[in-house]
Design goal:
Blueprint (H helix, E strand, L loop, with lengths): L1 H15 L21 E4 L6 H12 L4 E3 L6 E5 L3 H11 L8 E3 L6 H4 L5 H10 L4 E6 L6 H4 L4 E5 L4 H9 L4 E2 L14 H8 L5 E4 L10 E4 L6 E4 L5 H8 L3 E2 L1 H4 L23 E5 L2 H17 L4 E5 L11 E4 L6 H18 L3 E5 L7 H11 L4 E3 L1
Parallel strand pairs: 1-8, 2-8, 4-6, 5-9, 10-11, 12-15, 12-16, 13-14, 13-15
Antiparallel strand pairs: 2-3, 3-7, 4-7, 5-6, 9-10
């Protein structure tokens, strides 16, 4: 009787569970299903055999996390609605939050878009491969499951060589949000990915630390004036030098957290550590004094405060766990370390985090956009 029961159960699972999600356990193991996640080491460069294995996973509907110059992405076949559904499921991401389609060659854009504007080619010539995503009118080749139900598609060509090799091996179109549990700080190392995704996806490609550390700039090209929907490494001034006047989505500059942005990855709460995060902004010496005051109050209350400063301010703080995010002399260090510092504080289980603000020249808007969302708009002005 036991054998008959097992055979019936296997038949039910085979009919209802996708092949990429199946794994058999003996009855004696008595545990919930956990997928075996393969870790492929490509820190030293592209492993052709590993890329072929990863490409086959994508072609059969599986999921592969991979490095880009911005953050690690969680990739699936962008033209397969079931693969997109698996991405949403693995992340715990709302299915109306669009995914970005990653391509490796300009010619690939023709299959997935219609009415391609001339500005798209201008921006591609200037910034692709690189950290720029363009929102365009989609063709019927792209399922609505990938675009969150929208008739537009977000497209990007990453500069990371491993990413482009994987895209080509996987069929040319890879939908990939950041490879983290939805709402958590984005992953900038393969270890960050493993913390969130081990047992949920088929493979993680370890390409080492990313170089930028913040998600790509998103610009909407579907409604006349090109409009920034999400700030990133490529800023408004850089875009304007190529296409002239550039607009900014009102949700990026509004103090009202209820104003809904239109961009992929920006509609819901993101980047947040487990502990409450509070930003202190104002004149430099006042900011440091206020953070010292707040961290001391936390200590007296029996709580541990985390403090985010810079190389220049590290010695000015006297309470709590103090970490440098980088140096103000090189703003890319601040961008690159933002998410990893938030994850470090998660590991230390601090009670509250206080952070300086970072109004840097090129990436200041992008850095503060992510920091403010992580803080849930909790800001103290001094």
């Amino acid at each position: 009787m036991l054998l008959v029961f097992v055979l019936i159960l296997r038949d039910i699972v085979q009919k209802t569970v996708p092949k990429t999600h199946r794994k058999w356990y003996t009855i004696s193991e008595r545990q919930d299903y956990v997928m075996k996640t393969i870790m492929e080491n490509m820190r030293g460069g592209i492993d052709e055999a590993g890329i072929r294995r990863a490409g086959e996973i994508l072609k059969r509907g599986g999921l592969v996390a991979f490095p880009t110059e911005t953050v690690y992405g969680l990739g699936g076949n962008a033209l397969d609605p079931e693969a997109s559904a698996r991405i949403y499921s693995a992340k715990g991401r709302p299915s109306d939050n669009p995914l970005i389609v990653h391509i490796a060659d300009w010619e690939a854009i023709e299959r997935i878009t219609v009415d391609l504007p001339h500005t798209a080619k201008l921006l591609a010539d200037a910034f692709w491969p690189g950290p720029l995503t363009m929102v365009l009118k989609k063709s019927d080749a792209v399922p609505l499951a990938t675009t969150g139900g929208l008739n537009t598609v977000a497209v990007r060509m990453p500069s990371d060589a491993v990413a482009r090799a994987l895209i080509r091996a996987g069929g040319g179109y890879v939908a990939a949000p950041s490879a983290n549990t939805s709402g958590r700080p984005s992953p900038t190392t393969a270890q960050h990915v493993a913390e969130d995704m081990d047992g949920r996806i088929d493979m993680i490609i370890d390409g080492g630390d990313v170089t930028i550390g913040l998600e790509s700039t998103i610009v909407d090209l579907t409604e006349g004036t090109p409009t920034i929907l999400r700030p990133g490494y490529i800023n408004e001034e850089m875009l304007a030098q190529v296409v002239g006047t550039v607009g900014i989505d009102r949700a990026l500059i509004s103090d009202d957290s209820s104003v809904r942005p239109k961009a992929p990855g920006m509609k819901y709460r993101h980047y947040a550590p487990r502990a409450p995060l509070i930003i202190v902004e104002g004149e430099e010496t006042r900011v440091r004094s206020k953070i010292n005051e707040l961290a001391a109050e936390a200590r007296l209350a029996g709580r541990t405060a985390g403090v985010i400063g810079t190389d220049e301010s590290l010695d000015c703080y006297h309470s709590g766990v103090v970490k440098s995010i980088g140096t103000r002399r090189d703003e890319i260090t601040i961008a690159r370390h933002l998410y990893s510092i938030l994850r470090e504080f998660d590991e230390m289980d601090v009670s509250v985090i206080y952070s300086e603000s970072f109004e840097t020249p090129q990436m200041g808007q992008a850095i503060m956009n992510r920091l403010i969302k992580a803080a849930g708009h909790q800001i103290i002005n001094v």
